[in-house]
């Protein structure tokens, strides 16, 4: 039987909200003076905390209770993206970022979130991004729309690229972030301004809400965009995921208002996005 995306969205929102409670409590404890174990991944600046691991273990346990048998791909615990079950019916894979914006979390900067998405055949059909500090809940169901705390979302309509606010992010590897900085220096003269908040899922949600007119970044993993890109797309954004547009770079993610998507893509290509 085909999974009901609306039901999957309810599961994603419930589990993400519960995990966000765990993360919020942990952040409060840190603010009160409790220490937290911190390790590194790809570089000395790419951190992971014990709370990331606790959050992902919690999400995996809850998904096993609510959706027994579904595989889970998580940032900290690994896994694989499923395609079809042995019986040939569509199988659901859950894609989880237990804390998107770990550096922000560590510093107490309140831009971080728990992201949970359901994918079928590698395509997101349901997703939720929940912010522990504000409590905001971003959700989307494929083909049915996107919402912030139950209110429908629509992208912005800037008059032109020169009036567009662009969000972006940078890699943790020094050489690549230097190339990204050069790219953004070239793009900056074509847009209103650039923002860098440090949590890809929330940047994508901000495009959905019209708080940003566009978002572009290289190097995202599936758990970074699985929920947020669906939310942006269902709010009307033009979305290009890693591997879909080689002229932007093999691992580029773009989400933009239709009013500026083509113009922004052209500028990114002209400024050398493919070489980042």
Rg calculated over all Cα atoms = 18 Å
Question: What structural class should be given to the helix and strand makeup?
Answer: alpha+beta
Question: Which strands sit side by side, in order, in the main sheet?
Answer: 3-4-5-6-7-8-9
What is the number of helices? 8
Helical residues, percent: 25-40%
Largest sheet: 7 strands, mixed
Order of helices and strands: HEEHEEHEEEEEEHEHEHHEEH
- Shape summary: globular
Strand content: 15-25%
State the total count of DSSP E strands.
14
Low-confidence stretches: 83-89
In round numbers, the mean pLDDT is 92
List the helices and strands and how they pair.
Layout: H1 5-31, E1 38-40, E2 47-49, H2 50-66, E3 72-74, E4 92-100, H3 102-107, E5 113-120, E6 123-130, E7 137-141, E8 145-148, E9 151-152, E10 165-168, H4 174-188, E11 193-195, H5 200-209, E12 214-218, H6 222-225, H7 228-234, E13 238-240, E14 252-256, H8 261-270
Parallel strand pairs: 3-4, 10-11, 10-12
Antiparallel strand pairs: 1-2, 4-5, 5-6, 6-7, 7-8, 8-9, 12-14, 13-14
């Amino acid at each position: 039987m085909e999974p009901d995306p609306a039901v999957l969205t309810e599961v994603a929102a419930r589990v993400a909200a519960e995990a966000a409670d765990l993360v919020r409590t942990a952040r409060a404890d840190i603010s009160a003076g409790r220490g937290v174990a911190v390790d590194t991944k790809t570089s000395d600046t790419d951190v992971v905390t014990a709370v990331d691991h606790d959050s992902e273990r919690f999400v995996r346990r809850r998904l096993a209770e609510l959706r027994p048998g579904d595989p889970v791909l998580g940032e900290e615990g690994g896994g694989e993206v499923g395609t079809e079950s042995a019986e040939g019916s569509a199988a659901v894979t859950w894609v989880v970022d237990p804390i998107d914006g770990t550096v922000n979390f560590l510093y107490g900067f309140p831009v971080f979130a728990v992201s949970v998405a359901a994918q079928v055949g590698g395509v997101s059909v349901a997703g939720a991004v929940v912010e522990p500090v504000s409590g905001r809940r971003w959700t989307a169901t494929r083909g049915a729309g996107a919402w912030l705390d139950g209110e429908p979302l629509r992208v912005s309509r800037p008059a032109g690229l020169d009036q567009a606010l662009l969000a972006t992010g940078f890699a943790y590897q020094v050489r690549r972030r230097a190339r990204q900085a050069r790219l953004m220096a070239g793009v900056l003269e074509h847009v209103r301004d650039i923002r860098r908040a440090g949590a890809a899922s929330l940047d994508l949600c901000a495009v959905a809400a019209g708080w940003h007119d566009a978002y572009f970044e290289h190097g995202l993993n599936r758990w970074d965009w699985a929920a947020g890109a669906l939310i942006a797309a269902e709010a009307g954004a033009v979305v290009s995921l890693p591997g879909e547009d080689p002229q932007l770079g093999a691992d580029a993610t773009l989400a933009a208002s239709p009013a500026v998507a083509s113009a922004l893509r052209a500028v990114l290509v002209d400024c050398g996005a493919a070489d980042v």
